[in-house]
Amino acid sequence: MIQGIFYARFLPQEGTKIVAQSPPGCIVPVTTPGPNTAPVPSQTISNLNASITSSSTRPGTSTTTPAIRSPLFDFAVLSEYIIPREPFRNRYITVTDPDNKYLVLGFPVSIPDPRYHRNEFIFNFGLVVDRSVDQVPYERVVRRLAITFAEMEKQSGYLSQDQTKAQPECAWGEGRDKNVDGGFFLTRRPIESLLEIIKEDLNNYGECMIPVDDANTVNMKLFPYHPNPPEVKSWHVPVAKMKLADIVDATWDLTLQKVIAQIDGVSDVRRIAFQADVSLELTQLALRHLLYYDTILLLDIFFFSACYAPRPGIHDFIANVDGVVDECANYVCVGALRINSNDNDKYSNPRSSSTTTLNNNSSALNSFSTTPQSSSHHLSTSPSNLSPETHFHHPTFPFHNPYSSSSLLSIERDHRLPNYLLIKLMTTFVSSRTVMEWLKMHMDAGIDVLRYVDVRRLVQFGVIKGCLYRVHKYVVSKQYLASLATGQSRRLTEREAAARGGGRRDPLQKYTDGCHSFDEIITEMDMTDAEVMEQLKGFRGAPAGDLAVLYR
C-alpha cells in the first residue's frame, strides 16, 4: 500500500523542494490556513529546521493552524537521495528511512537543455511504502511516472511551468493562449490533485487512468510479482489451496481443465497425467502454471514406509499459536460415532465426518477435499455393524469410561481427540521411525489412531504448517560414485554394457549416485519400496556391500 507520493524539483535558488505531496504533510510539514489566510508554500531544505511561521495575512485576519500530520520520515536526512548527485540520476533508486520503517522509491530525472537555468531540469516522482511491502510491483509505477512526465516536459514544458499563471521558468509557451493579465492560460490538471488520484486509485483498485491534459493520459497498473515456479517432478503431489472447480470456466485451456479435475491431494503427477489422458510434459507445464499463481502447492507422496521428523515450527503447534491445534483437529479428525438413543440422525451418514474441511481461519488448507475412497476406507465403520454396546466396549476407545452414564454425554459434546493427544501424535514423529512404526507404537499404547485420525491428513498438515519435514531415502554406490567423481567412468548405455560383456545394464545404476530419492525411483520404475529394496539386494552394478541407503 502506498503511504505517500510526492513530486520534487531542484530549484536553482532554493535547492531540493517538495512541490506536491499526497497526503498533505506526508513528506514535509504543511500548515492549514485560516478562513481568510493565504496558503503557505511548501517548505524547502533551507527552512525545514526553522519553526513553522504563519504566512502573511490581511489586516484583521486569523493566523494559520498547526500542521495537518507529521511527516513519515525526516526529509532533511533523505533530501540528498530525493534529488541525488549526477551518477544516481536517470535510474531507479530505493532509500530506507533512518527508522527502517519506510522505503522511498524514486527515479530522479535530469533533462539537459540550454533553455533551463543551469542548463538542466531535475525532478523526481517518488513513492513511500512500508518496509515490509514487496517493492517490485511499484518499480514499474515509479518508472512510468518518470518516463511519462519527462516526455511531457520535453514536449510542452509541463513540469517547468508553475501550476498557476505565474512566470514560466523557461521559454515554453509560444503559441499558447494568454489571458487578459498577460499570464499563461494553462488548461491542465494540477499536480497535487493528480498525485492524490494516482495514490487513491492504485491503493483501492490497483490501476489508474487519469487524463492530464488534452493530449496526455497517465495509465498505470500494479502487477503482482510472482517468482518463477519450481520444477514439477513426476513424483510430486499437487494440493489445491483453493476450490479450483469454482473458478474454472469453459474459456480455460482444455489441458488445464483436465488436469485440475484430477487434483485431489493424493495422486502424484504421473497418476494425474494418466487419469487425465494428458502427456506428462503437458501435465507438468499446467501444474507449473498453477504454481506460478500460487493456487497449488507440491508435497511428497505419502507412504506408510516414509519417515518424518519435527521442525522448529512444532513449538508453535505445542503452544497452539493462533489456534493451530484446533485447526488441525478440524482437518484430520474423522471422529467416533456420536451415539444418542434419542437422535439416530446424528450418525446416519458415517462418512460425513471424514470429509470435514478446515475452518475459515485457514489460509493454506481451507479447500482440501478428499474423496471417500481415499480418506475413509480405513477410517469409518458402518453403523449397521455397530451397536452402542459394541461401540463403547471397543478395547481402544479412548478417554472415556464405557460404563459411565456421563461418558455418553461427553462423547456427544466432543467427538474428536483432545488437543493434548493431537500434540502427542504430532511430536512423536522422528527421523528413525516410519509412519507404520509410529502408528503401531500408538496402537500398542491403547490409542486407536485409525479410528479417529486420518494419518495422511495429519502428516500433510504437519508438513504444510512447518511442523514436520520428510526424511528422504537415497541409495549410494561408493564405487560408482567414486568413478563419476574422478571422471574414470560414465553411465553406460545398454549397448555399451553388453559389448563389455556385462550383459544388460542394471536399471537402478543411474539412481545410485545419491541424488535420486526413493520417491523418484518408485515413480519412474513403477515399483514399491519393498520391491526396490529387494532389487538392490541383487544389484549387479557393484560388488557386494558397496551399496548404502542414506536418510536425509
Describe the fold and architecture:
By secondary structure, the chain is α+β, with helices and mostly antiparallel strands. It has helices at residues 75-82, 136-156, 191-205, 254-260, 269-276, 280-292, 314-318, 324-332, 372-375, 388-392, 405-413, 419-427, 435-444, 449-452, 455-464, 478-486, 494-499, 518-525, 529-537; strands spanning 2-11, 15-22, 31-32, 65-67, 93-96, 102-106, 109-112, 120-130, 207-211, 217-221, 237-240, 296-299, 307-310, 468-471, 473-477, 513-517, 547-551. Strands 1, 2, 5, 6, 7 and 8 form a six-stranded antiparallel beta sheet that branches. Strand 1 and strand 2 (15-22) form a beta hairpin. It is elongated, with a radius of gyration of 35 Å. The two termini are 42 Å apart. InterPro entries: NPR2-like.
Distance between the termini: 42 Å
* Rg from Cα: 35 Å
Determine the fraction of residues in helical runs and give it as a percent range.
25-40%
Count of alpha/pi helices: 19
> What structural class do you assign from the helix and strand content?
alpha+beta
Low-confidence stretches: 34-67, 163-186, 336-414
SS elements, strand count: 17
Envelope shape:
elongated
Residue-averaged pLDDT: 76
Beta-strand share of residues: 15-25%
Mind describing the biggest β-sheet?
Answer: 6 strands, antiparallel
| Multimeric organization | single chain
